[in-house]
Amino acid sequence: MIEVEAVTKQYLGMMPVLDEVNLSIDSGEFFYLTGVSGAGKTTVFKLLMLMERPERGVVRFDGADLSAMPRSQRALHRRRIGMVFQDYRLLPQETIEENVALPLRVSGVEGVALRRKTEQRLVEVGLESRRKERVMGLSGGEKQLVSIARALTLEPKVFLADEPTGNLDQAMAHRVMELIQAIHRNGATVVVATHDLNLIRTFRARTLLIKDRKVHEVRLAETRPGM
Description:
The protein is an alpha/beta fold. The chain is built from seven helices and ten strands. It has helices at residues 41-48, 71-79, 96-106, 111-125, 140-152, 170-185, 197-202, and strands at residues 2-9, 18-25, 30-34, 56-61, 64-65, 81-84, 158-162, 189-193, 206-211, 214-218. Strands 6-7-8-3-9-10 form a six-stranded mixed sheet, sandwiched between helices. Strands 2-1-4-5 form a four-stranded antiparallel sheet, covered by helices on one side. A hairpin with a 2-residue loop joins strand 9 (206-211) and strand 10 (214-218). Helix 3 (96-106) crosses helix 4, helix 3 (96-106) packs parallel to helix 5 and helix 4 crosses helix 5 (140-152). The chain starts with a strand and ends in a 9-residue tail after the last strand.
């Protein structure tokens, strides 16, 4: 589904964050992307979302070169990818319901279809009874649940989670990861960026490590703090 071939990405002429990186993601796969803060995990996600472009190399999605994608198709491409962020990126003054419905409204969904799809996502994350609450009053874990529901509204083929448990206590972190695993079981390709090795060991999956600007596949026994 996704091919990253010899990709180099740098900012403002500084040393590359990613240097000649190769990565292959199969349809329906679940894996972790790990590494220390600043290693380049978020940069990989931005390349996939067309928020950044590589200096060299090619990123392909379903065989299409993203760098060559016409502007008219970029919004459609992003709709195929659901993404959650460590800082949530919600509208704090709006209700849970309105935040979840936003991608649908932007895509032109209205009326019964809008209400049905929004309710379905709220049920999935367990927030249907709190739909009218404003986001600004929620805990960090609850905000992440809203963020996940919002990312799922357009039924994406790929689900990206950037440090989804970074600000959460252990109980909520486990709840979020169990929800992400359910998303994978429902057919989405899932990539979770995290530096939490305890989380990786608890919810085991293929693990790729970004180190020294390269991507390395590792076994759990090889992952240790400081890698």
